[in-house]
Target: rRNA N6-adenosine-methyltransferase ZCCHC4
Amino acid sequence: MVKKRSFVPAVTPVPHSKSVEVIAEEVTIHPLCLHGPTLLFSGEKGRFFACASCRNNKDCTVHIEEEDWLKEGVRQRNEKYYKLIPKLDKAAAWNHFKEVKSRHPSDRAYCHTCQELFIVSQSKKHLKDHRIVLPLTDEQLAHPTTFLLPLENDQNEAQYIFAKKSASTILGILKNNKISNILCIGTPSIHEAAQEHPDFDSLLLDYDTRHLQFYPGNKFLWYNMFNNYLFQNEDEKVLKKFLKSSKNKGLAIVIDPPFGGRVEPLAQTIKELSKMYSTICESEDKILPVIWAFPYFAEPYITNMLPEIKMHDYQVDYQNHKKFQKGGRKFGSPVRFFTNLPFSTIDLSNDSSYKLCDKCKYWVSTSNVHCNKCRECTSKNGMTYKHCNVCKRCVKPTFKHCDACERCCLEKHVCGTVVESQSCYNCNEKGHKKSECPQKDGSSAKKKRKSK
Ligand SMILES: C[S@@+](CC[C@H](N)C(=O)[O-])C[C@H]1O[C@@H](n2cnc3c(N)ncnc32)[C@H](O)[C@@H]1O
Ligand SMILES: [Zn+2]
Ligand SMILES: [Zn+2]
Ligand SMILES: [Zn+2]
Ligand SMILES: [Zn+2]
Ligand SMILES: [Zn+2]
Ligand SMILES: [Zn+2]
Model:
């Protein structure tokens, strides 16, 4: 049976406070916490190591000043984490899966309370007052994302699953680029879809160990995307083998991090995986093809860290997120694809919400208008932008040029305050307002925890 985690899942993003920066570097020699190697942060009070994934100090208490890390005692105390990270018995989990699968669907079930697959005639304990799924069809066993619930202590960062259309758009882009191998990082539904396609081979890297129960040892790796950490030593071999097998098949990273996750460590992870691939396959040292689903307002951060990655206008829809699906938010989902694949390979011809811009030569949202002055389709947030001749760029339709500020601002503004560099009052991140904050999903009040 799969060992259960005895700690809080790290699906909350890393610290966000705008005064704290992450130093993007290899983390293998950093102190450990239950979520793998910590990251090095630089704040007003100096540099310190803290958890790569937990924003809340209470979820992960490891906090080590950079200079303290040189002390023998501190190092020794930190070693306990090597033993605290649970060992998963992958072989046993896979044997159990096969056993469950061999039964009639009416004898197969999944217990949400215990987070485990079970055989009904063998295990009655779940039938009393546990929350269970029964029966389990072959289809369900092959698509755990269709019935796994968002993790309990993970109300704010629920596991938003791509709408079918968005998932098939991703596979379509890969196909058009003749890419058949996929590293699915935090994208279990793409992994599931790839399993059914003879054209694709994929490996799932995710923090959520529940997925382990549904795959053989070489298909799921317990992983933290914020520090590029594999929790099981032997999994590095599996990853390397998969990279090697991708040599002449084309390999892409498809990643959908928790909303609010920091860009720097994610960009570092993409760089490290790309480096690993080029070393193993003796290929050119460059960033692997990436499809990264993330909110449009992260654009400046992503292009700053990875200039080869550009934001496409496609609005990524989710099945289980009211605001991030069609009709949920006034201007559609704020999530976009960030990719270094050619935009011309993103074919949206069978989606009526998109049109082919004959000047840009790629598909854009029907509400996006090509600006002849900017020479591009300029919408970022889904609204039709308008050109300001003074600023010499397109701006949101809600903006108006202010002579006092010498720039376009919201009509109601206090002159002298620089709107775009103000931080969101909800999450502290720059580039969007509280009303557009992706984390303010009805539960923002609950989220007012102390952040690092
Ligand atoms: C926003 S959901 C994306 C799901 C995706 N849209 C799909 O349909 O498959 C985030 C995913 O990242 C995983 N995740 C969260 N934190 C992670 C971390 N630190 N490292 C790796 N995976 C993580 C979650 O378990 C979840 O599968
Ligand atoms: Zn931690
Ligand atoms: Zn149970
Ligand atoms: Zn255009
Ligand atoms: Zn313009
Ligand atoms: Zn202007
Ligand atoms: Zn003004």
Summary: Residues 263-280 form the longest helix (18 residues). The longest strand covers residues 201-206. The pocket of zinc ion (ligand 4) is lined by residues 357, 359-360, 370, 376-377 (CB under 6 Å).
